[in-house]
Structures are given as structure tokens and as C-alpha cells.
Write a structure and sequence with these properties.
The complex is a heterodimer of chains A (about 475) and B (about 700). By secondary structure, chain A is mainly alpha-helical. Chain A has 20 helices and four strands.
């Protein structure tokens, strides 16, 4: 095979810059800034990371119209993948700045470096059609996230959460690798288009079915779909807020992208169906089951939560269920719009959580009581984010749901997937209860201790939260702003 | 230069931003608010000038510059709702006028509203109005235009009712809003119909817009009720909106009452810009109005379609009707208000008989001199301590020299003094176009009669305000009706004084502009026509008019001379404190003073009808419906008893159980999560097995 290495380097330049950023952050923090205070170092590290990622983003924008397929599908670039990478970089930068709001660690340089490493993994994940590379990239992401989860070394809960996350992730990865090996055994290739060409439906071939289920397990773990979600509440609760935000946002965007690609590019012949009265074995049926379980289970379990972070974890599970509808609908743009707007929104909520924990020391829903008076700014942005999660127009969350529901409703003939859409709508109604409970604390319930001091985040984080809120409103008012980059 | 179209949105966005920021300001932050509003308007003026320059270079042979920038707002199913900006000479000219006059009026307001404690709010509203008006001008989509149109209406409502503690102001605001809504109803129906027929509301969209050949051909060939072409029907519906907004007969009643607002508002909204929006609308959709089966082009003269004929007649009647009423008014602002109605009539007449260039030129010149007159009136009112009755003024010529000079320029422009005043040329063009209009000569005669009246009432006003011997405040007999709008008790203040410079400077600038504008549309150098028509490169200096033009000019000069001399003779010889015309024709004068009783007519018909329907509804409500309701209530009570019995025993407990179940399910769901990793992994394994089994089972069925 003739490889044009120069070409490869050019196309991988953004990823290379991100890796260089990892080294730069480590060098600066461990060598140059030894004597600085922690907060100064975290600002410094976040700035270095922002600069490096800015450069990578510049390269991406410069090459955003590229279409390439190198090394037998190992590196596949399209304008959409470039845009998704831009979104990932943006989410990572926000995460880095959120990290400055929290005093959980002395080792900010390593924390930032791990964020950058995970970002590298995500960027590779969205630019390949090779099963082996998918696995390697996914492991890079997962391993980085495990360590990020454990980063609050003073907290037993953080360590416990990371261990659970790690064990669960290890088992899921094992299933996935098993599934990949089945696919390789069935088709003799690890390149998605070739797999697609060779695999087709032979009447209920159990081996194919097992392979499909195993592959879905691995990604079901990443996106926290029921019944592979069990790590999520613990990880969300124990991890540092910025790490949890990253798990909830960047990791999900990349995973949804590659899951969609794998199923729609690699396995279109064995889609099967989960449509009303037209069940047929295949991944559509599996996804439909996962979506149903996630929406029902996630929303119900969220009703009973008192911790804000666990509530967000179950809400994330429910949202994974909605997003799977986009996968069934077969609309990449709807799925990505949903995943990205959801990522931005949950990034914002976790930002508020970080400020609340850091400045007011409260992490329960009840702890938000009287936020209206304690911090109008936080109350305002939190309202925007929560309403967007609940899917209230004209916020981004509404259009995200709208597009995936429409995509699913159009799929299939006759009643098709309307049953799933109806279920999703009912589940959304249930979800309003717990979202509005949060807002009730913010706006209606008076503060427990009158005269309790105000809460205010650092100026950078407050600024970021306002920007995120503006993005949520803007994308809701004009979805085309984002949507046209995803088509 | 052509790239300006992509930044055209800046023009309305700047004042909108200012309005938003001012809305967040506190009441004492008066200076920042005023500075912000004026600054945003000045910036918008600069951008408008750039846009204007961009329209000055038409490409050879392609007619007027027409730049559009369309984009999708959002998708709905298979269709996308698309908005856009449009830049053509019509838009550019209006943009420059609105931002220029607007800036001056904003500056004037700083002085005029100096004593008002809500200055901050005032500037917020003004900026909001400016944003909406400018958005209306750049819209390339009828829906967007309509949205801005309504926003303009809201801003006008807020500003007319700015002194809402006065009941008359609150009532006037309500009246303005509701009356224009009546017209808007037709407008909106027209929009819906147009969308139904053409599937787009974009004006210009590379041949697919609703004002372009394709859509027009389709619209004129279809017919509807009574054999009327669909294009005519839609045009008439759209014209309803224009009638409401531009105060044409029969919906003119709100405009004189709108003078309850602060004078700068009257100048900006109810004389120069907003009321002209209706005229602008007609000019904008002129291709639709003028579309006829045979002749779609605009070659030299305006086509005689039904829609345009209606526009012509409404305009001509309004022009004379309002001018008649203006003769007998005593409130300085109300005279100007009726004169505005009358001049808007002229604009409509001009559009109907002569096409956009004729109507729009009168609009532009009128905007300048009417703003000048209103600001002058504002200066007079301000200087004479909120006195508005012209019979109690007098002699201000010496006391307020700058205001007098500026006002005189405005008055002569409005009356149509020949040669150096822009009003003369623009009105002359309207009359000329009416004269050569083939279907009927009556509109021309009406227009000429209106010109006589205009000269008459303006001279009367000038005489009373500036020349008459100064009346003592106590000597004015009877009729204190108009003193309701006074702010301060009479007689408590010293003699009138000249206004501060911040108020006189805009006056002077506007006066100069009024004179200079006359250079642009004389028959010697018809620049404005060529500009709107996109024929600037064919423009030549020289006498280009026909013999009819000379005759028209002569007639209109005679009309002005007649009006002025008659008025001057009557009034300068009259006794102080009484009205010469009143003495000669007491009954006519009273009828005119009562505004020909249109309001009373509406009160007697529309309101009475409304009240009758209300009484009928009330009666039906009480007796017919309530008995039905009683019956239903009886039934319902019976059913309720039944269902309560069922409910308490059956459903209630069922629902409660359901809720408990849901919460319980939540509890169960979260209890699954007991924190033990071993169980997590077991569930994962079990999940895989269940999925595999389920899917294999599916395959076997």
C-alpha cells in the first residue's frame, strides 16, 4: 500500500496540534510554574489549552471543506466530521475553564492534559471507518475519562465512582471487541463499507445477531442507555464537576456520531425493524428496545432523586433514549444537532452545579432554594438550561427533540415508529415534573436561611455560562445556524 | 459597495440594540439614554448613506440597482420560511430620509422633553420605533414587513400614550391602535391570500419572488368574485393596511387625535415616517398594484388598473377632505395633523396617477418640511409654555425669530410657493401626473382645489401665530376645549421665549434641507425620477417637460396665490380674537371645526351598531345561552353525582394508585442502583442475554 505520509500529516494536523498541547500544558505546569498558586496555574493551563485548541480549530476551519479517505478507511474526513471536531474542541475548552471553578486538585496540569488526550481520542473516533481504530480511539477516550473521574483524590466517592466506571467500561469494551471480532469473522474485513457489502441478512443468522448486540453494548455504555447505564449516576455524582460535564457532553457527541456511522454505513443490510406490527430482527429493533427502556427508566428514576447531579445523570439517560430516536430516523443531522445542543446545555448545567458546590457548598436540589435572590445571574442561566433540557420552545432543546421525533416518525410505513414517538412524548411530560421541581426551588421556594449570602462564580465561569445560555437561545431561535453545518 | 447588502441588517439592529439597553437603564440615567439613542441613529444614518451610495451606480441596461440577501429562517416540513433584505433606490432613499430626520428629531427631543421625568423611557420607545421603521424599509419579505409594521404600530401606541396620565392621551393611543388594526386586518388577509397563490412572500428572489414576472402573470390571469383579477383583490386588501396606517379616508380619524403625544413624536411618527409607511407599502408592491393582463411593464406612465384607480380616488378625496377641515381648526398641532392627512392623500394620488417616483418624491419632501413644521410647532409650544391654541398666540415673529424663519420656510414649502421650495416641485409633479391621467380629470381638479385650501389654512395659521397682535391670555373668549392638553396653568408664566439651541439647530438644518431638496426633481434636472427608475446614466440637464407641465405649474402658482392672498386679506383685516371665516360662514365653519362629524358619524353608526350587537349578545347570553347552560349544568350535576360516586370508589383510588405506582417505580428504579458493582455487572450481563434472546425470538416469529 502506498501511503502519502505528507498528506496524512496534513490531514491529521489538528490532532497533532492537540497532542502537542498536551505536552505543552504538562511542561508549563510541571516545570515552569512550580511556584505559582493553584488558581494561577489553573488559569495558565486553561489558557495554554485554549491557545492550542484554538490553533487546532483554525486548522480545521481552514480545511473544513475537505473530503478524504486514506489507508483503507482508517482516516475518513468529511465536512460534517470536521464540524463535529470543532464542536468537540469547543466543549473541551469550556470544560477546561470550568475546571478553574473548583479546588479539588493540585495537579491542574495533568487534569488539563487528560482533557486534551480524551479530546484527541474523540477527534480520531469521528474520523475513522476502521473497526480497530474505532476501538483504540474509544479506549483512549474511556481511559482518560476514568482517570478524570478519579481526579478528586481527597474524596472517597470520586475513587469509588471511577472504579465502578472503569470496571463497567472494561466489561462493555470486552463485549464490543468480541462483537467486532465476530464481524471480522463474518466478513473478513474491519473496514465498514466492505463489511456493509459482505454482510446481508441470512435468515436469522444468530451469529450476526449476537455481533450486533455486542457492538451495541459497547456504545450503549458510552451513551448511557438502559441497561448499560448503571455507571452513570455514580460517575456523575463522584467525579469533579468539570469531568462530569465532559463525560456528559463531548464523549456523548463523539459516541453518537460513530455509533450512527457504524450502524448506518457498516450494517445497513441488517437494520431489521422495530416498526409497529412489523418487527424484524436487526439493529433497529435493538435500538428501539434500548430507546424505550432508557426513556422510561431514566425519567422515572429521575423523579426520585434529591441530588442535583444524580438527577442530571438520570435525565442524561432519558436524553440518550430520545437521541436514539434520531438514530432510528436515520437522520445524521438531526442526531448531531440533538447531541451537540444537549452537550452545550448539560455543560451549562454542570457549570452551575460547579459554582453552587464550590461557592455555596450545596449539591442537592433543595440547596438551590432562593437562588433567585442569591444570584439572579445563575438563576437566569440555569432556567434557560433546564427549560432547554425539558424541551420548551424556543430553546435549542425543543428543536433538538422536534427534529429527532420527526425523523423517527417519518421512518417506516404506516404507523411505523409512531409508537416510539408517542412514548417519547409521554416520557417528556413525565420529565417536566422533575425539571420544574428544580426551577421551583430556584424561583419560588424562599431561601432556608434568610440573609444567606449571595452566590457568585468567578468572572470567567460566569461569562462562559452566559455565553452558553446565549448559544442555547440562539440555536433555538435559529436552528439553521448549526443545522447547515451538519448536512 | 455591493457587499453592503449583507450588512444592511445593521441599520435596524443598531437602534434596536439601543432600545434594549435603554430598557435596562434606570430612570435617572437620562443623558446616557439620550446619547445612546442619538448615537445609534447617527450610526444608522452613516450605514444608510453607504447603502445609498451603493444604489447610485446602476449597471448599464439593467435598470435600477436591486440587491437582495435572502436566507432561511426555519424549516417547517418540506418548506422553509425565508426572510431577506432588499436594497433598491426606494429603500435607500427612505433609509437616508428616516435616519436623517430621525436623528434631528431625537436631538430636538433632548430639549423638548427636558422637563419630563421619564426621558429615559421616552428615548427607549423612540429607538424601538426607529428600529421597527427601518426594519420595515429593508424587508424583502411581506411577512417581515408586516411584523415591523405592527411593531411600528406598538411603538406609536406607546408614544401617543406617553403621557398616559392624561385620559385624552390614553384614549388617543387606544384609538390609533384599534383604527389602524382595522386596516391591518385587510392587510393580513391579503398576505395570506398572496402566500396561498404564489407560495412565497419574498418580494424579489431571482425570478421566484411574488413581485416578479412569474408570480404576477399567474395572479393577473386568475379571477375571483365578480370577475376581478386575483392581483386586484390582493392589492386592494393590502391597500386596506395602507389606508389605516396612512390615515386615508375613511380611517383617518385616529391621526388628529394622535397629536396628544409629545410633539417630537408627532413630528417623527405622525408626520414624517410612520404614516408614510402606507405610502411606502403601496410603492413597494406597486408591481402588483399595477399588474394588468396586457401591460406588465412600467413604460413612462402608470398603468390604469382597478387597484390604482381606487388608490387615486381615495387619495384625491382625502386630500381635499382633510384640507377643508384644517381650515377651521384652532390647535396648532391639529392643523398640521389634518394637513398631514391631506398631504398623504396627495402622495396616494401621486402613486395612483404617476407611479412610485411621483408619490415617493412628495413623501420625501413632505417628510422634511412636515418634520420642520412640527418641530417648529414644538418650539412654539415649548416657548409659549405649552399653549397650543393659535388664537392665543400672536406676535411671536419678534419673540422667536429663528423659529419664525424656519417655520416660514416649512409653511411655504407646504403651501407650494414656487421655485425654491421642495414642496412646490413635488406637489407640482403630482398635479401634473393627475392632469395627464386619462380616465378622469376630476382628481386633478380636486388636487388643485386642495392646493388653494392648503395655502389658505397655512397662511391663516402663520397669521395667528406670528403676525397677529399679541392676545392677552385672559382675553380669549369661550371655547377652551383645546386647553385640555395644557400642561401648566395659564397665565402663570412670563412671555414666550426663543427655544434653546438644541431645538433650533435641527430646525435650521431641516429648513436648509427643505430648500435644497428642490434641486433634485425640477423638470430641468429630474434626478429623482432617473434614480428611482435606474436611468441615472441617461440623465440630462435641460427642459424635459411637455406643455402640460407648464400649464400645471401656472395653475398651481395661481392656486397658491389665490389661497394666500384670500387668507391674508381676510385675517389681517379681521378683529383680534375672532375668526374671519367664522363670521362669514358660521355654519360651514362649525361643521368643519367639528371635523365634518366623521367621529360623530362613527359614534352613531359603527359604535351604535357595535353597542347594539353587544346588547343583543348580552341578551342572548343571559337568556338563550344561560338556559342552555343551565340545562347542561343540570345534566352535568346529575352526571357529576354519578361520577363522584364512581370516582370516589373506583377511579380516584385508581389514579392515586397510579401516581403512587409512578413514584414507586421511580423509587424502584433508583433502588436497582444499590451501589454494588457486582450487581451492576450482573445487570449488564443479563441485559445482553435478554437482548440477544429477544432479538433471536423476533427472528423466529
Amino acid at each position: 500500500m502506498n501511503v502519502d505520509y505528507l498528506q496524512l500529516l496534513k490531514l491529521l494536523a489538528p490532532e497533532c496540534v492537540v497532542v502537542l498541547t498536551v505536552l505543552a500544558v504538562l511542561l508549563a505546569d510541571l516545570q515552569l510554574w512550580r511556584n505559582w498558586s493553584v488558581s494561577a496555574r489553573s488559569f495558565g493551563a486553561a489558557s495554554v489549552l485554549t491557545l492550542g485548541f484554538g490553533a487546532a480549530a483554525g486548522l480545521l476551519i481552514w480545511k473544513r471543506a475537505v473530503t478524504a479517505d486514506l489507508l483503507g478507511g482508517s482516516l475518513v474526513l468529511t465536512p460534517v466530521s470536521q464540524h463535529v471536531k470543532l464542536a468537540l474542541l469547543g466543549l473541551a475548552v469550556v470544560t477546561a475553564w470550568l475546571c478553574t471553578e473548583g479546588k479539588f486538585t493540585q495537579h491542574v496540569g495533568e487534569f488539563m492534559a487528560l482533557i486534551a488526550l480524551a479530546t484527541t481520542g474523540m477527534m480520531l473516533l469521528v474520523s475513522t471507518e476502521n473497526l480497530l481504530l474505532v476501538f483504540v480511539a474509544l479506549e483512549l477516550v474511556s481511559l482518560s475519562l476514568y482517570v478524570l473521574t478519579a481526579f478528586n483524590k481527597g474524596s472517597a466517592r470520586s475513587a469509588e465512582a471511577a472504579l465502578k466506571y472503569f470496571l463497567f467500561g472494561g466489561m462493555a469494551a470486552a463485549f464490543m471487541l468480541f462483537g467486532f471480532s465476530f464481524l471480522y469473522g463474518l466478513t473478513g474485513s474491519i473496514h465498514l463499507p466492505i463489511i456493509a457489502a459482505k454482510i446481508s441478512w441470512q435468515a436469522a443468522d444468530p451469529l450476526t445477531l449476537v455481533a450486533i448486540v455486542f457492538v451495541v453494548v459497547g456504545f450503549g455504555f458510552k451513551i448511557a442507555a438502559v441497561p448499560f447505564h448503571l455507571w452513570a449516576p455514580d460517575a456523575y455524582e463522584g467525579a469533579p464537576a468539570s469531568a462530569a460535564a465532559f463525560i456528559a457532553s463531548g464523549s456523548k457527541v463523539a459516541s453518537f456520531f460513530i455509533l450512527g456511522k457504524l450502524l448506518q454505513v457498516g450494517l445497513p443490510g441488517v437494520a431489521g425493524s422495530g416498526a409497529w406490527k412489523a418487527l424484524a430482527p436487526g439493529w433497529m429493533a435493538v435500538i428501539a428496545i434500548l430507546a424505550t427502556a432508557s426513556m422510561v427508566f431514566g425519567n422515572l428514576a429521575a423523579l426520585a432523586q434529591s441530588s442535583l447531579r444524580r438527577l442530571l445523570a438520570y435525565s442524561a439517560i432519558a436524553h440518550a433514549g430520545y437521541a436514539l430516536l434520531g438514530l432510528i430516523g436515520g437522520s445524521q443531522s438531526a442526531l448531531l444537532y440533538y447531541a451537540i445542543t444537549y452537550a452545550v446545555t448539560s455543560m451549562g448545567v454542570f457549570g452551575v452545579v460547579a459554582v453552587m458546590e464550590n461557592r455555596a457548598g450545596s449539591e442537592s436540589v433543595v440547596g438551590l432554594a432562593g437562588l433567585r435572590e442569591r444570584s439572579p445571574l445563575l438563576a437566569g442561566v440555569l432556567t434557560v438550561f433546564v427549560l432547554s433540557l425539558a424541551g420548551i420552545p424556543p430553546l435549542a432543546g425543543f428543536f433538538g427533540k422536534f427534529y429527532v421525533f420527526i425523523a423517527a416518525a417519518k421512518q417506516g410505513e404506516g404507523l411505523g415508529y409512531w409508537w416510539l414517538v408517542a412514548l417519547a412524548l409521554a416520557a417528556s411530560c413525565v420529565s417536566l415534573y422533575y425539571y420544574l421541581q428544580v426551577l421551583k426551588q430556584v424561583w419560588v421556594v424562599p431561601s432556608e436561611r434568610p440573609g444567606q449570602g449571595g452566590v457568585a462564580g468567578g468572572i470567567v465561569v460566569s461569562g462562559l455560562l452566559v455565553v452558553l445560555a446565549v448559544v442555547v437561545v440562539a440555536l433555538g431561535c435559529a436552528p439553521e445556524l448549526l443545522l447547515r453545518f451538519l448536512k | 459597495m455591493k457587499g453592503i447588502i449583507n450588512s444592511l441588517w445593521l441599520i435596524p439592529a443598531l437602534p434596536l440594540l439601543a432600545a434594549g439597553i435603554i430598557a435596562l437603564m434606570k430612570r435617572p440615567q437620562r443623558k446616557p439614554a439620550a446619547a445612546l439613542a442619538i448615537g445609534s441613529m447617527a450610526l444608522a444614518f452613516l450605514v444608510s448613506c453607504v447603502a445609498f451610495v451603493a444604489t447610485l451606480q446602476p449597471e448599464a441596461g439593467k435598470g435600477a440597482v436591486q440587491l437582495t440577501h435572502n436566507f432561511a429562517w426555519f424549516d417547517l416540513g418540506g418548506s422553509a420560511l425565508r426572510l431577506g433584505w432588499l436594497l433598491d433606490p426606494l429603500t435607500a432613499g427612505m433609509l437616508v430620509m428616516v435616519t436623517f430626520v430621525g436623528s434631528l428629531i431625537f436631538i430636538f427631543s433632548v430639549g423638548y422633553m427636558d422637563h419630563d421625568e421619564n426621558l429615559t423611557r421616552f428615548f427607549g420607545f423612540l429607538a424601538l420605533f426607529a428600529a421597527a421603521m427601518l426594519g420595515l424599509l429593508i424587508a424583502n419579505n411581506l411577512l417581515f414587513l408586516f411584523m415591523c409594521w405592527e411593531l411600528v404600530g406598538v411603538a406609536s401606541y406607546l408614544l401617543i400614550g406617553f403621557w398616559f396620565h392624561k385620559p385624552s392621551a390614553a384614549a388617543a393611543a387606544k384609538k390609533a391602535f384599534i383604527t389602524t388594526r382595522i386596516g391591518d386586518l385587510g392587510f393580513f388577509l391579503g398576505i395570506v391570500w398572496l402566500y396561498h397563490e404564489t407560495g412565497t412572500l419574498l418580494f424579489y428572489d431571482n425570478g421566484a419572488g411574488c413581485l416578479e414576472q412569474g408570480a404576477l402573470t399567474k395572479l393577473v390571469t386568475q379571477t375571483t368574485v365578480g370577475g376581478m383579477a386575483v392581483s386586484t383583490a390582493i392589492s386592494l386588501l393590502l391597500f386596506c393596511g395602507a389606508v389605516g396606517k396612512s390615515g386615508q379616508l375613511p380611517l383617518h380619524v385616529w391621526l388628529p387625535d394622535a397629536m396628544e403625544g409629545p410633539t417630537p413624536v408627532s413630528a417623527l411618527i405622525h408626520a414624517a415616517t410612520m404614516v408614510a409607511a402606507g405610502v411606502f407599502l403601496v410603492a413597494r408592491v406597486f408591481p402588483l398594484m399595477g399588474a394588468a393582463t396586457a401591460d406588465l411593464g412600467l413604460e413612462g406612465h402608470s398603468p390604469h388598473t382597478t387597484a390604482l384607480t381606487v388608490v387615486t380616488w381615495v387619495g384625491a378625496c382625502t386630500a381635499v377632505f382633510a384640507a377643508l377641515i384644517a381650515v377651521a381648526q384652532n390647535d396648532i398641532k391639529r392643523i398640521l395633523a389634518f394637513s398631514t392627512v391631506s398631504q398623504l392623500g396627495y402622495m396616494m394620488l401621486g402613486l395612483g396617477v404617476g407611479g412610485p417616483a411621483v408619490g415617493m418624491f412628495h413623501l420625501l419632501t413632505h417628510a422634511f418640511f412636515k418634520a420642520l413644521l412640527f418641530l417648529g410647532a414644538g418650539s412654539v409650544i415649548h416657548g409659549s409654555h405649552h399653549e397650543q391654541d393659535i388664537r392665543r398666540m400672536g406676535g411671536l415673529r419678534k419673540l422667536m425669530p429663528i423659529t419664525f424663519a424656519a417655520y416660514a420656510v416649512g409653511m411655504m414649502a407646504l403651501a407650494g410657493f414656487p421655485l425654491v421650495f421642495s414642496g412646490f416641485w413635488s406637489k407640482d409633479e403630482v398635479l401634473h401626473a393627475a392632469m395627464i391621467w386619462s380616465p378622469s380629470k376630476l382628481p386633478f381638479l380636486l388636487g388643485l382645489f386642495g392646493a388653494v385650501l392648503t395655502a389658505f389654512y397655512m397662511t391663516r395659521q402663520m397669521w395667528f401665530v406670528f403676525f397677529a397682535p399679541r392676545a392677552e391670555s385672559a382675553s380669549s373668549p369661550g371655547r377652551a376645549a383645546h386647553s385640555a392638553s395644557h400642561h401648566e396653568p395659564q397665565g402663570a408664566s412670563s412671555s414666550p421665549h426663543e427655544s434653546p439651541r438644541v431645538m433650533t439647530l435641527p430646525l435650521v438644518i431641516l429648513a436648509v434641507a427643505t430648500v435644497l431638496l428642490s434641486l433634485f426633481a425640477t423638470p430641468v434636472w429630474p434626478w429623482f425620477h432617473a434614480y428611482l427608475g435606474g436611468q441615472l446614466d441617461h440623465l440630462q440637464v435641460g427642459w424635459s417637460a411637455d406643455s402640460a407641465a407648464g400649464l400645471t405649474m401656472l395653475l398651481s402658482v395661481l392656486a397658491v396665490a389665490l389661497g394666500v392672498s384670500a387668507s391674508w386679506r381676510l385675517y389681517s383685516r379681521g378683529k383680534a380674537g375672532t375668526d374671519a371665516v367664522e363670521r362669514l360662514f358660521p355654519r360651514l365653519f362649525r361643521a368643519l371645526q367639528g371635523r365634518l362629524y366623521v367621529d360623530e358619524f362613527y359614534a352613531a353608526t359603527v359604535f351604535r351598531l357595535n353597542a347594539a350587537v353587544a346588547v343583543l349578545s348580552d341578551w342572548a347570553d343571559r337568556f338563550v345561552w344561560s338556559s342552555v347552560v343551565e340545562l347542561a349544568a343540570w345534566l352535568a350535576k346529575g352526571l357529576a353525582w354519578l361520577s363522584r360516586t364512581l370516582d370516589e370508589s373506583g377511579i380516584n383510588s385508581g389514579f392515586d394508585a397510579g401516581c403512587v405506582e409512578t413514584r414507586g417505580a421511580g423509587g424502584f428504579a433508583s433502588r436497582l442502583q444499590n451501589g454494588q458493582t457486582q450487581r451492576y455487572l450482573r445487570i449488564l450481563g443479563a441485559g445482553v442475554v435478554v437482548l440477544v434472546v429477544a432479538i433471536v425470538w423476533m427472528g423466529n416469529n
